[in-house]
Amino acid sequence: MTLFFRREPDPLSFEQFHGLDVIAIDGDQGAGKTTDLAQQFHKALGGEVLDMDSYLESSHDDRPYLEKLDLDKARQDITSSASVPKIIVGVLLLDVLAKLGIKQDLLVFAKLIDNGFWPYQHYVGQRARIPKSRLTREVAEYYNREKPWERANLTTTLFRSIERW
């Protein structure tokens, strides 16, 4: 079995993003927001990567994602950092930024296509099903409400496939 990854667009062009203060990378779980995209932006532009998952007080309780975040600590780290750009990464990111009172200069939406399938396609739109997982349900509700891929300045897709022998 072999796992293949491909990102589009490839390569990403970063010249147009110099001089921005806040870059927000929102999108699907597993779409390489932190491990790939944020690192590419950081390498090309410098600044600081702030992963909202690192502000989770606990991932093992039943509270909604936004209630698990230490927003005071995140706000302090973001506003006290002199590094630019601030590359803020996470799910539900427009909601997180609104709670923090921070406006992004650039919104990137990272989409995952897994074996030719968008994992959220059954959860968005008028005939959406309700996901079983709490976080997937929160993301689906957020996607239906905010449609971040439509609001994004840049959309990038990670194609992941498994070849079985």
Structural write-up:
This protein has 165 residues and is an alpha/beta fold. The protein has a single domain, classed as 3-Layer(aba) Sandwich (Rossmann fold). Helices cover 32% and strands 24% of the residues. The chain is built from six helices and six strands; from the N terminus they run E-E-H-E-H-H-E-H-E-H-H-E. It has a six-stranded mixed β-sheet with strand order 1-6-5-2-4-3, sandwiched between helices. The protein is globular and about 45 Å long.
Q: Helix/strand-derived class?
A: alpha/beta
Radius of gyration: 16 Å
Largest sheet descriptor: 6 strands, mixed
The topology string of helices and strands comes to EEHEHHEHEHHE
The CATH architecture is 3-Layer(aba) Sandwich
CATH top level assignment: Alpha Beta
User: How large is the share of residues in beta strands?
Assistant: 15-25%
Care to count the β-strands?
6
Structure annotation, total helices:
6
Q: What is the general shape?
A: globular
Q: Classify the fold: give the CATH topology.
A: Rossmann fold
